[in-house]
């Protein structure tokens, strides 16, 4: 076993050795190890390179706050994950890991070139250079800067994993399972509350796992933890969730939890969920997130082997790993003495404790000396040596200019503790500055939430336990034996004899921000901490400043000569730790991202080999190619057969709203531009709907089924908003009207039959309706049955041919369609799709709202003044139509265009000008809204919105295309086919 | 001190001890010719152009927080000008013209990267709409071209262009001259350049009132640091515009909504340009640090809270993973919110107000960053001339009365 | 995601059940009033909004619930609902709102 292992300590399973690889080399560890603990056990501290200067780095921490030891983990195709923290990645047999941001390798990294010239890359250097010559920016500098981007490799393959998604509620959500969290859970559990307890680590217990010196109510901390966990497990009302990070705290006690299921497992069966996002609505939230130890800022504090004192404790007590053989401890807080003593107790030589403070409790010094540890009070570490790992520290005393060198292979540092206020701040709880300890503490809650234990500044096990019990609704006070957590002093800077240009003291390790950068920022006028952050990038790395923000604040406020609260604190933003996109997607990816809506008839179209197009939330059959036809050929054939004989079209996606009630016609009068009162029962009318701003909002045919009942149709994409628009007006503006609205889009299948043989086809199968033209004229609706199925049969036409729209309950849609299709063989019936529908309607000049109109077109613009009632006192949009700009001359108006070369089909969206030879920017008159090849007419037809178009009839306009081609077209009325509508009357 | 590789080198040798303050924070004088309310990119830029282009240097910019701390520092930094209407193309393209060369003009590298913006079309309606944009842009002199799915993939190799997807890529509109810039640097660069020209930048100085004389014209602003006289006042307060205009007794056609954005952890270069999708509803680019920068639409309700709901973030990420399924294993690093002020036609209001001496630049909604230099210049011009430039003249308040709206969103229309 | 009290269901439900529907108490002028209004007055009805920083009267639609539109007072700085109330009830006075605020209810 490695000389750095301390068998018998920690929670790792010494009976289960595990081999894994790091940068291609195999290492040994045990089940329960992290990549970092196992590498440290193998004597490896060098695990990564920093972002900017590519400096060699080892782990600073032992948990999710880690800024340095970032690795890439690979496990087969599509399962490469960059930027993971070696300190939280549990190992399994065969795990493949690699360091990042280095070339060609971690030991020798060409990028470290930057480090040599780091003096030229201070904070904000990029603002000051790369500007000359200008042309170099686009071609040289910028591409180079972009190439330098990034830490880990970018993914290139699709992630095959699945992710889960859960919504849940609970009475009490507890974040953090240290003494405070566990005591809170115990108390809440006893009160019969429904409790969720989460912790980001694999083991619950927080600092209790790492507190061998502590007893609670007569039990060792380990035994108390075990007993408590057992009690909670058995309680039946507490859900324990390890490996679960509370990532964000949102409105009204809505907390998101990211749970990791499989990353630690050697074997993952296919289909297993990798991570789950739980969204918890909690009655009460108890935040017991603890505190994060603060690094000290001194020259060489980033050398591999320099780490937080508590991290060394964690490696010892959880993983049974001594982080070195001969350690130096550098501290400004009592707590590091305990760390030193624990390590000394584990057979690790503590060469010295260096305490930056001038005054330290005598008992600590005595305790140290009792263990044979030198204590240097009032001294600081002024430099470190060592390449891949620290080998020596230099210590310094400023008054007497004492200097001394001490050999070591690891340096533990402790600059005090920073309570974790992340989730508290997400919830918009306020914070206050505690000048004594130099930290921010929770102040007033904004939600039903408390912040307890170390995250509330209450350090020590007993304080945490008692606060936990109280927060959980209990009144228990615990008896503990524990070393005094002690006090500390905050240093904004540590004395040094060196010229500042010769030092590099890091604040944000990952982003290579030094104290000098922060002072430079202040010198250059960046006086708010948000400015300092953005100018230096301090706190913007993947750890989001967990170890660096408070040090930066101290340095900046000292440089400014202001109190920290005046300088501020950067805002905590979710997520607490980086969160997998997949987990945020949950199951809503691929087919479930936005579910494609299909009509009842869709399977038939699919069976026929239809090509589909997405239309809003639906997919619709676009055209039905036969025998290898392309779209053009298929559409030409579909049009021809429909005009000559019979076409069948699935119009089920049309929006449908049933408007019912004694005041139904009054309501319709208000919602549409045209009048409805006199529309007879059994008659249909085309309706045009405006927004209150006077622009065309929607259109559709409406049938009056009874005095008090209208069958309204809307555009396919417009259905939901038209429904909302109607409900809004009905409930808010016209509540006195006795009307009910029901969306019936899904209830009806709609089969449109168009063509001279339409009536002949349905006649044998329709019962209860007299289909004769006299009894059932164009624009009428009747109720009866077809094939014995109840139907609302509309005689309407969107093609100009004799047409029927057969509405039947959706579950009969497919059967009726098939029966009609079979019977239609006699008439050479053709199914057609949306493209043919468009051609047929465009030949007739029927508009599509949203294509021939956009949100800026009035009925007048569209040539539809005839449908705007002059008699009605009110309808939605009426007053707006009178606004000065809406009645002004020269508005864009909908006209028809015929190209001079009938073979040319204009591009939809093409712009129209009077003079194609004018210079750019050209004066554009409008654009082509619809344009199709008309097989029936043997020429192309188009519609366009053109400035003052109604007055341009017969004139030639130009459509300049890219590449210099200019099409010519003549302005005509937008009705190209059967202008007198005779084909509707075929017998 | 002029910024250059040379000065950087020289200062490195002296330990960077001699850099002066880039934008000294001033205490207010008694009176200014012009007071600009709001020290974002737009407000600072307006002060800079007033001093540099229009010869008015007795200018103060007052800011309630820290400069560049609003939407300037919270956006996804997209710059483009491929708008449909002549009016929009005019003002956004003016901005792009100014972007190009801004680093040199300000002697401050704002890192404007012309990496291009690709807008993906996923259905026939998108194709029609984008074609309309491309044609209009071409005739307006705005570079924007239509790309086939294969051409889109050439620009963005990680794009999946198979046509059997829920949102197939049916093509795209690509503007090469568009791209991104470093948002903070824009505010700092303008602040530094304006400071040098004598503009006072006064931070931590919230405006609490606008004083008007007997004739109704503005006289000055009441602030937390006392009264500051001003012959003219330009308001460039983004999400808080309604609040400031209310101090002058004006009610505006504005609503303020939360807009969220997020970044991933940094990875090596993978997204070569800005990619936007209306149908899937998301946009993405990659910062020079390597972070994927991602955004979408606003939360549904008005708010000044600078935070939004998680389900929008979830949907935003789902959308990105729909376009780029390879990103499912990426991780979100940070998610934040800003306040965007939205007008009824989603186009800005830049010009005079009914109050003499009071000028406004607001209503940029989600598109303000890209317009920064253009909007700033137009606000400055209007203040200096007491009349709008022809570029910003259409973006007046009166259009809401007569109905001559500039409705880009409506013109993009909703699917049939 | 906020929790919103629907005054018709008398339940707090998550935000995704609701659709925001803009500022409340902007009554649509009747036909006669419309004709008397100038374009400027009409545009005020159409477009001008309080956009208040603080307590804001607004409408919500319980679209994926009971389908009712209702009114609410919400603080736009904290996003906290002060009170929701049924359509047709009058705009609450400032003193009423502060009373509700003290009561801390919704």
What this model shows, in words?
The complex is a heterotrimer of chains A (987), B (416) and C (106). With 987 residues, chain A is an alpha+beta fold. Chain A has 24 helices and 52 strands. In chain A, strands 8, 9, 12, 13, 14, 15 and 28 form a seven-stranded mixed beta sheet that branches. In chain A, strands 42-43-44-45-41-35-46 form a seven-stranded mixed beta sheet. A six-stranded antiparallel beta sheet of chain A has the order 48-49-50-47-52-51. In chain A, helix 5 (179-190) runs parallel beside helix 6, helix 5 packs parallel to helix 11 (461-471) and helix 7 (309-319) packs parallel to helix 8 (335-345). The model of chain A has no long low-confidence stretch (mean pLDDT 96). Chain B contains twelve helices and 18 strands. Chain B has helices at residues 5-13, 41-52, 86-99, 102-106, 124-140, 149-155, 183-196, 241-247, 310-323, 368-385, 399-402, 408-412; strands at 31-37, 59-62, 78-79, 117-121, 145-147, 171-175, 179-180, 200-202, 207-212, 218-223, 226-235, 255-264, 274-277, 282-286, 292-298, 331-342, 349-352, 358-362. The radius of gyration of chain B is 21 Å and the shape is globular. Chain B starts with a helix and ends with a helix. With 106 residues, chain C is of the alpha+beta class. Chain C is 24% helix and 31% strand. Chain C has three helices and six strands, in the order E-E-E-H-H-E-E-E-H. A four-stranded antiparallel beta sheet of chain C has the order 3-4-5-6, covered by helices on one side. Chain C starts with a strand and ends with a helix. At the A-B interface, strand 6, helix 3, helix 4, helix 12 and helix 13 of A face helix 1, helix 5, helix 7, helix 9 and strand 16 of B.
Output the keywords:
heterotrimer, A: 987 residues, alpha+beta, Ubiquitin-like (UB roll), FAD/NAD(P)-binding domain, seven-stranded mixed β-sheet, 24 helices, elongated, C: 106 residues, Folate-binding fold, two-stranded antiparallel sheet, 3 helices
- Reported by name, the CATH topology of the largest domain in chain A is FAD/NAD(P)-binding domain
Radius of gyration of chain A (CA) equals 38 Å
Please describe the biggest sheet of chain B, giving its number of strands, its sense, and whether it closes into a barrel. Answer: 8 strands, mixed
Task: Characterize the overall form of chain A.
Answer: elongated
Share of β-strand residues of chain A: 25-35%
Structural class of chain B: alpha/beta
Helix proportion range of chain A? 10-25%
Order of helices and strands of chain B: HEHEEHHEHEHEEHEEEEHEEEEHEEEHHH
Largest interface, by Cβ-Cβ below 8 angstroms: which chains and how many residues each?
A: A-B, 124 and 119 residues
**Given this structure, which CATH class of the largest domain in chain A is correct?**
Alpha Beta
First-to-last CA distance of chain B: 59 Å
How many H/I helices of chain A?
24
CATH architectural grouping of the largest domain in chain A: 3-Layer(bba) Sandwich
């Amino acid at each position: 076993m490695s000389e750095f292992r301390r068998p018998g300590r920690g929670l790792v399973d010494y009976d289960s050795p595990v081999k894994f690889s790091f940068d291609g080399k195999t290492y040994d560890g045990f089940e329960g190890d992290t990549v970092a603990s196992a590498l440290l056990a193998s004597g490896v501290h060098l695990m990564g390179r920093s972002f900017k200067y590519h400096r060699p780095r080892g782990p600073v921490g032992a948990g999710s706050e880690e800024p340095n030891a970032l690795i890439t983990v690979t496990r087969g195709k599509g399962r490469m994950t960059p930027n993971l923290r070696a300190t939280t990645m549990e190992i399994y047999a065969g795990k493949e890991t690699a360091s990042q941001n280095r070339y060609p390798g971690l030991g020798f990294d060409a990028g470290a070139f930057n480090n040599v010239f780091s003096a030229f890359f201070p904070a904000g250097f990029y603002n000051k250079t790369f500007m000359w010559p200008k042309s170099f920016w686009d071609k040289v500098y910028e591409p180079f800067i972009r190439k330098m981007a990034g830490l880990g490799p970018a993914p290139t393959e699709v992630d095959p994993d699945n992710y889960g998604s859960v919504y849940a509620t609970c009475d009490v959500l507890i974040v953090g399972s240290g003494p405070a969290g566990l005591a809170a859970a115990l108390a809440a559990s006893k009160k019969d509350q429904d409790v969720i307890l989460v912790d980001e680590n694999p083991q619950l217990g927080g600092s209790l796992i790492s507190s061998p010196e502590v007893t609670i109510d007569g039990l060792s901390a380990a035994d108390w933890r075990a007993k408590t966990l057992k009690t909670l497990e058995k309680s039946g009302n507490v859900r324990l969730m390890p490996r679960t990070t509370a990532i964000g705290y949102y409105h009204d006690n809505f907390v998101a939890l990211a749970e990791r299921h499989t990353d630690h497992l050697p074997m993952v069966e296919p289909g297993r969920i990798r991570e789950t996002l739980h969204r918890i609505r909690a009655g009460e939230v108890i935040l017991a997130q603890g505190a994060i130890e603060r690094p000290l800022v001194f020259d060489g504090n980033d050398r591999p082997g320099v780490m937080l004192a508590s991290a060394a404790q964690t490696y010892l007590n959880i993983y049974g790993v001594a982080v070195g053989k001969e350690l130096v401890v550098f501290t400004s807080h009592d707590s590091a003495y305990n760390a030193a003593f624990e390590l000394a107790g584990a057979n690790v030589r503590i060469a010295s404790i260096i305490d930056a403070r001038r005054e330290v409790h005598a008992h600590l010094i005595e305790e140290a000396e009792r263990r044979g540890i030198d204590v240097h009070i009032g001294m600081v570490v002024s430099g470190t040596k060592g390449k891949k790992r620290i080998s020596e520290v230099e210590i310094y005393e400023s008054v007497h200019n004492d200097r001394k060198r001490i050999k070591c292979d690891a340096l533990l540092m402790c600059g005090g503790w920073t309570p974790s206020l992340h989730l508290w701040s997400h919830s918009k709880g306020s914070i206050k500055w505690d000048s004594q300890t130099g930290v921010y503490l929770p102040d007033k809650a904004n939600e039903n939430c408390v912040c307890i234990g170390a995250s509330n500044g209450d350090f020590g096990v007993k304080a945490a336990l008692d606060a936990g019990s109280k927060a959980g609704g209990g009144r228990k006070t615990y008896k503990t034996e524990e070393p005094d957590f002690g006090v500390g002093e905050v240093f904004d800077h540590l004395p040094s004899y060196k010229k500042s240009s010769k030092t590099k003291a890091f604040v944000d390790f990952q982003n290579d921000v030094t104290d000098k950068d922060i002072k430079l920022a202040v010198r250059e006028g960046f006086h708010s901490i948000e400015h300092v952050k953005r100018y230096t990038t301090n706190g913007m790395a993947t750890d989001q400043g967990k170890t660096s923000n408070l040090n930066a604040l101290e340095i900046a406020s000292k440089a400014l000569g202001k109190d920290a609260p005046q300088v501020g604190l950067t805002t905590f933003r979710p997520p607490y730790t980086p969160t997998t996109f997949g987990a945020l997607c949950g199951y809503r990816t691929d087919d479930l991202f936005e579910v494609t809506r299909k009509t009842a008839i869709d399977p038939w179209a699919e069976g026929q080999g239809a090509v589909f197009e997405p239309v809003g939330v639906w997919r619709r059959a676009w055209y039905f190619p036969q025998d290898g036809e392309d779209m053009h050929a298929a559409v030409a054939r579909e049009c021809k057969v429909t005009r000559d004989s019979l076409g069948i079209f699935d119009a089920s996606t049309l929006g449908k709203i049933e408007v019912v009630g004694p005041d139904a016609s009054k309501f319709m009068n208000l919602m549409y531009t045209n009048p409805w009162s006199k529309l007879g029962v059994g008659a249909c009318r085309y309706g045009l709907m405006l927004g209150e701003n006077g622009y065309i909002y929607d259109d559709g045919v409406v049938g009056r089924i009874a005095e008090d009942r209208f069958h309204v149709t809307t555009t396919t994409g417009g259905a939901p908003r038209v429904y909302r628009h109607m409900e809004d007006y009905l409930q808010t503006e016209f509540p006195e009207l006795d009307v009910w609205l029901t969306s019936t889009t899904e209830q009806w299948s709609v089969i449109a039959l168009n063509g001279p043989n339409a009536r002949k086809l349905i006649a044998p199968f329709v019962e209860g309706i007299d289909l004769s033209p006299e009894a059932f004229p164009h624009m009428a609706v009747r109720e009866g049955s077809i094939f014995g199925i109840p139907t609302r049969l509309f005689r309407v036409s969107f093609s100009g041919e004799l047409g029927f729209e057969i509405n039947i309950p959706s579950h009969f849609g497919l059967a009726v369609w098939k029966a009609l299709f079979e019977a239609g063989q006699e008439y050479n019936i053709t199914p057609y799709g949306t493209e043919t529908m468009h051609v047929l309607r465009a030949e007739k000049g029927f508009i599509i709202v949203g294509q021939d109109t956009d949100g800026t077109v009035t009925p007048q613009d569209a040539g539809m003044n005839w449908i705007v009632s002059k008699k009605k006192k009110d309808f939605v949009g009426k007053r707006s139509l009178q606004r000065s700009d809406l009645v002004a001359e020269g508005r864009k108006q909908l006209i028809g265009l015929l190209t001079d070369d009938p073979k040319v089909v204009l591009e939809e969206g093409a712009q129209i000008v009077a003079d194609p030879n004018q210079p750019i920017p050209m004066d554009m008159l409008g654009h082509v809204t619809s344009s199709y090849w008309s097989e029936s007419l043997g020429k192309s037809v188009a519609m366009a919105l053109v400035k003052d178009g109604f007055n341009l009839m017969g004139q030639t306009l130009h459509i300049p295309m890219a590449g210099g081609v200019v099409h010519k077209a003549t302005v005509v009325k937008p009705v190209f086919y059967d202008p007198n509508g005779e084909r509707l009357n075929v017998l | 001190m002029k910024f250059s590789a040379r000065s950087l080198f020289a200062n490195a040798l002296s330990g960077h001890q001699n850099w002066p303050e880039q934008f000294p924070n001033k205490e207010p004088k008694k009176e200014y010719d012009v007071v600009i309310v709001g020290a974002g990119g737009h407000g600072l830029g307006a002060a800079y152009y007033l001093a540099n282009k229009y010869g008015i240097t007795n200018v103060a910019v007052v800011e309630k927080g820290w400069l560049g701390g609003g939407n300037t520092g919270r956006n996804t930094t997209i710059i483009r000008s491929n708008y449909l209407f002549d009016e929009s193309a005019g003002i956004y393209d003016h901005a792009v013209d100014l972007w190009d060369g801004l680093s040199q003009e300000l002697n401050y590298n704002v890192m404007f990267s012309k990496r291009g913006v690709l807008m993906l079309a996923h259905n026939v309606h998108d194709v029609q709409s984008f074609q309309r944009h491309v044609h209009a842009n071409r005739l307006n002199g705005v570079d924007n071209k239509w790309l086939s799915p294969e051409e889109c993939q050439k620009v963005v190799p990680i794009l999946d262009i198979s046509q059997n997807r829920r949102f197939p890529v049916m093509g795209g509109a690509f503007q090469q001259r568009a791209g991104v810039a470093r948002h903070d640097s824009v505010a700092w660069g303008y602040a530094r350049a304006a400071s040098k020209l004598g503009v006072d930048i006064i931070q931590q100085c919230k405006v609490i009132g606008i004083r008007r004389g007997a004739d109704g014209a503005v006289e000055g602003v009441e602030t937390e640091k006392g009264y500051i006289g001003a012959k003219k006042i330009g308001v460039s307060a983004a999400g808080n515009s309604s609040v400031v205009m209310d101090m002058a007794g004006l009610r505006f056609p504005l609503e303020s909504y939360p807009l969220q954005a997020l970044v991933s952890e940094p990875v090596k270069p993978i997204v070569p340009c800005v990619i936007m999708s209306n149908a899937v509803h998301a946009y993405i680019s990659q910062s020079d640090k390597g972070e994927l920068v991602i955004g979408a639409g606003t939360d549904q309700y008005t708010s000044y809270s600078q935070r939004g709901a998680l389900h929008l973030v979830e949907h935003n990420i789902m959308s990105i993973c729909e376009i780029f399924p390879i990103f499912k294993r990426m991780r979100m690093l940070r998610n934040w919110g800003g306040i965007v002020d939205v007008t009824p036609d989603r186009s800005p209001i830049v010009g005079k107000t009914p109050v003499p001496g009071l000028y406004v630049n607001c209503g940029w909604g989600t598109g303000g960053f890209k317009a920064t230099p253009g909007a700033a210049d137009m606000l400055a011009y209007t203040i200096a001339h007491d009349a709008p430039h022809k570029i910003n003249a259409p973006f007046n308040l009166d259009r809401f009365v007569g109905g001559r709206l500039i409705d880009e969103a409506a013109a993009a229309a909703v699917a049939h | 995601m906020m929790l919103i009290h629907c005054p018709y269901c008398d339940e707090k439900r998550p935000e995704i059940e609701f659709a925001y529907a803009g500022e409340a108490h902007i009554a649509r002028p009747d036909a006669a009033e419309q004709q008397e209004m100038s374009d400027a007055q009409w545009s005020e009805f159409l477009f001008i909004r309080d956009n208040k920083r603080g307590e804001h009267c607004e409408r919500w639609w319980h679209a994926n619930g009971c389908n009712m539109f209702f009114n609410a007072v919400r603080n736009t700085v904290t996003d906290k609902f002060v009170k929701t109330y049924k359509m047709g009830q009058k705009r609450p006075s400032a003193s009423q709102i502060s009373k509700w605020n003290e009561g801390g209810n919704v």
